[in-house]
Amino acid sequence: MRHSPRIAVRCRTARPRGFSLVELVVVLALAALALGAGARALAERNPGPALVAAQQLVAAVLTSARVEALATGVTTRVLVPADHPEGGEPEFRLRQLQVVSRQPDGTWRAVTRGMVLPRPALVVPPSPPPLVSGALWGSAPVSSFAGEATLQVVDAAGARTLRACYVEFSPRGTSPVATVVLAPGENAPPSRDARLRFREPRDVRGVKLSQYGAQTLLDHADAF
Helix, strand or coil for residue 34? Predict the structure, then answer.
């Protein structure tokens, strides 16, 4: 009785591959584009969806900055322009987020491009802002950052000066406790009106960051 020869077949199991930093940055950029496109369709009378999208974007950018710090062993920051940015769009004040890393010469290298929050969402500054109606912000929550400074940021277009509030991550991924508060508002160019104008102090969302990088999403004013 003849036997058929046995044929050995080796099967290779593909190993799962994690995201690289470059891929993570690309994903965030695509998410920002999608959020921006969706935000244009939102009605100004219903800022809720824009605040939810902005909250998710803030959380993603903070995660990206912490991953960059841990992976490279270099201090990173998430910048939020506190003034109208030099060479940038005036409306980017308190509406743009960017991850940067510290360089040996004291400058900051751009790790991601600027991510713009969907309108009408703005980052609430550390000091109570005025309302559109002229009333006071009162005891409503405001943002708390690691600090505010004037920085030299270097990207593909060259160096620029930027005064910004920032959240900072050490090379070990730790951070001073911070809270980024979001609310609907208006950001007029300085040629017309240098003031920020927010709409309703109770209509807020935010992201709270612990010293170990853990995030808590805050969905209403009473959660702060």
Answer: helix
DSSP code of 135?
Answer: -
In the structure, how many helices (H) and strands (E) does the chain have? Answer: 2, 11
What is the C-alpha separation between 46 and 44, in angstroms, rounded? 5
In a domain, 113, yes or no: yes
Please give the structure tokens belonging to residue 72: 């490279």
- C-alpha closest to that of 175 among 108, 80, 75: 75
Question: Is residue 56 situated within a structural domain?
Answer: yes
- 107 burial via Cβ count (<10 Å: 0-12, 13-18, 19+): middle
Q: Which residues contact 91 (CB under 8 A, 6 or more apart)?
A: 187, 189
Query: Pick the residue with more confidence: 216 or 134?
Result: 216
Residue 4 lies in a domain: no
DSSP per-residue string spanning 40-66: HTS-TT--HHHHHHHHHHHHHHHHHHH
What's the CATH number where 103 sits?
Answer: 3.55.40.10
Taking alpha carbons only, the member of 85, 133, 115, 135 closest to residue 180 is: 115
pTM of the full structure:
0.79
pLDDT at position 213? 93
Tokens of 102: 């510290």
pLDDT for position 186: 86
Q: What is the dihedral of CA 190, 185, 64, 23, to 10 degrees?
A: -80
Q: Is 154 left (phi over 0), alpha (psi -120 to 50) or beta?
A: beta
